[in-house]
Structures are given as structure tokens and as C-alpha cells.
Amino acid sequence: MQQDILSTFLNQADQKAFSRRHRQTIQFNISRYDEKVAIGKQQFADLEKARQLAKNIKWQAIENLPTLLLEFERNFTARGGKVLWAEDAAQARILIKNILIEQKTDLVVKSKSMITEEIELNDFLAEQDIEVLETDLGEYIVQLRNETPYHIITPAMHLNKADVAELFHQKFATPADATPAQIMAFVRQQMRAKFAQAQVGITGANFIIADTGSILITENEGNARLTSTLPPVHIALVGIEKVLPSVQDLDVFLPLLSTYGTGQQLTVYNTLISAPQQKNEKDGAQQMYVILIDNGRSRLVADPKLRESLYCIRCGSCLNNCPVYKNIGGHTYDAPYPGPIGAVLMPHLGNFEENAHLSNASSLCGACTESCPVKINLHELILYNRHLETEKNLKPTDEQRMWKMWAWLSSKRWLMNTPRFAKRWFAKRYLMPLWGERRVFPQFEGKTFNQLWKKGLV
């Protein structure tokens, strides 16, 4: 099973990395991101101080996680909201199913939410004969293509304008050369009727605020605001690590998230929701549920090293700066969280044995750590996961055999000093097949350092 998953990953990585069209599309989209982020960073008088402050706040939040979550629950329920707790993905899905059964609905509108991808909510609801409509344009595009999101922030990053125009032409007979503005106008018209029909809206949340009992949703399209206010029932799914101690903490987190996520000074819509519709209010859902999801996060909290991974604010910056992600793309990971943060999280949020290989999809160059707005030491955590993989004896048998053989050879000086042709023969026979046919195997020098030293040549 594990070997099959690894083989599939390697085959897909090979196809994407050597697809010129794929790489051109990704490089173009990420280059535009890089330009915007460079401009967005200029809003900070002291960017490093802001990043360190954000990391310190998240440290405080995770260290006091149970207390802050209970504070959020107390403040949110005091105004009529309902908080439900889900230990894992299956329990979260059942909680949602029960709410939908109670509402007797067969249509749900949903805004962009990575945690719904994590718990595979869309597939589950489809099995219950419930229509789920993604209202974020990027998510809607990949939904029409029967794909998962390619990127944490930009779900359709792997597509260009022509790809999207062709998709809508095939699905809805729109003009084959439709512009992005025309496509957005068409989607807006389609969506409005669904917003009016839906009994339930499902969102995620970027942050949950303990001292005010609020959730914060940040977006650029406004669909999350419609999803959370037009349907009579609003369900917000949130990972327990998203908690912040105070609403004042948003002063640092919102600019950092928008800058590192999209290069903006601030995203267009930032919505704090603290309760269902109150008596003196005209807008808002009549019932509101916040489902707090663990799904492996407590295991991360329990590990002093991995706890830091829960500081993540899902900006996607580590993906955009990772040389591996930029070559193999998001779908290759076959995980809700791709890239460096996915390599750290997925072995622990999912099945470790099935996801351990993701931690090897890294050059350990440190670009992910350098680009993280909350200064998570991602490359060190990836290396830590590799250590755990070795401890659990999950490395492929051939690879283990190769390194044991190499360790034995390296400990024998007389073997290391054998003629170059002998070492080449051995490498070609035993090492190169495992090294990979697309990688250039290091060349052996004519004389080893030991031999040169004895002759006084170094």
C-alpha cells in the first residue's frame, strides 16, 4: 500500500515536472504573486518585528489552547450561537449531516474552506444526495473540473485564462473566447439564485477570537459574506488551532495574511461574526453553528517540536517559494494541504504511513521557513518527520538497503581507495537505479582525498 502510494506520487511528480506547459503556467502565476508580495511588504515599518510578534501570539495561543477555546465557546454561546466539537473528520461530517437533516435541505452553498477539503465534506454530502455549490470562483472552477484545489489560496492556479474559457464553453455554452470579466458576470448570475434557495451556508474561518467569541472570515469576492448571511443556517468549520487570544491581535495578523497570501495590504472583505441574527438586526443567519475540529491537531500539540506547525495561518507563501512545489504542482501531493506545510501536517492529520513520503518532497533549502509570515521552522519540521519515518521503519526497503551498503563501504578505507572504474561499476550496478534516471549521479574523482593527502598534494 505504502509503496503503491509512493510510486504514484513519483510518477505524477515526473509528469508534472517535465511538462513544459504546466511549468510555464505555474511559473507565470507565481511570478505575478512575487511582484505583488514585494509591494505589499512595503506597508510594514518593521516587517521582522511584525512576524516575530505574530509568532509570539500564536505561541501563546497554542500553549493555552484549551483555555482559549473554552473562552471562545462561553462568549459565543452567550449570544445564541452553538459550538460543537469534532474529534475527527468522521465525527465532523456526522455533525453536519445531522444539521442538514434537521433543516430538510438538499442544497448547500459553501465558501472557500480548506478544512472542508481536509474532512472530504463535498464527497460525503454528494453521497447523501445533497448538492454542494462552491461559491468561490477558483473553487467553483475546480469543482466543475472534478478536481481538488491546486493551492491553498489559489485553487485554480494550474489553469490559464484560455483553460477557464474553454471549461465554461463546454459546460455552459458561453463564448469560447470569453474574457475573465464575462465569466465572472456569468458566475455571479448563476450564484445569486443559489444563495436565495439554499437553506444552509457552510464556511471556514481564518481565525476564531477568544475574548469576543467571534469568527473572522477574510476574502476578496464577497461570496463568504453571502454564504454566512443569506441562508437561514450558517455552519462554520474551524480547526482548533485557529484561535487567537484577542480581537486586537488582528491588527498584526490581517496585514500579514493579506500580504503573504495575495500581496495586498488588506483583503477586500474582512467579516467578524459573533452570533446568529439578533433581535435588532436585519441581516445574518437565524441559526449559527461553529464546529471546532481536532482531527489530529491534539497529537501535534502534544509533540513539543511539531506544536509549532499549528502557528500556520494558511497564507500559501511556503508553497509559492518552494522549488519542489513549483515543479511538481499541487495535485501531485494528493492531499488537502500541499507544499511544505502539507509535508509537515499531513502525516499527522492523516495516516502517517500513507503520507510520510511527502516529507521527502523537499530540498531542505529553507525557502519555506524564510518566507513564512509567522516564522515556522518548516524545513526543520520536515527533517523531523523524516526522522520519525526512519524510526517507524517506513523507508522503502531498497533505499534502506542502499544506505546500509553505503555506510559499510564508507567505513572501509581500502574500498574507498579502489580504482575509479571499480566504483563506477558498483554505482551503476547498485546505486544509480535508486538515484533516479532523471538525476545526474555524482562523478568519482580519480584519487580520493586520503590518497592525495598521503602524496602531499593537498
Fold and architecture overview:
By secondary structure, this protein is of the alpha/beta class. It has three domains: 2-10 and 305-391, no CATH class; 44-295, Rossmann fold; 403-454, no CATH class. Helices cover 53% and strands 10% of the residues. It contains 23 helices and ten strands. It has a six-stranded parallel beta sheet with strand order 1-10-7-4-2-3, sandwiched between helices. The protein has a four-stranded mixed beta sheet with strand order 8-5-6-9. A hairpin with a 4-residue loop joins strand 5 (207-209) and strand 6 (214-219). The protein starts with a helix and ends with a helix.
Low-confidence stretches: none
- The strands making up the biggest β-sheet line up spatially as 1-10-7-4-2-3
Shape: globular
Q: Roughly what percent helix? A: 40-55%
Number of domains: 3
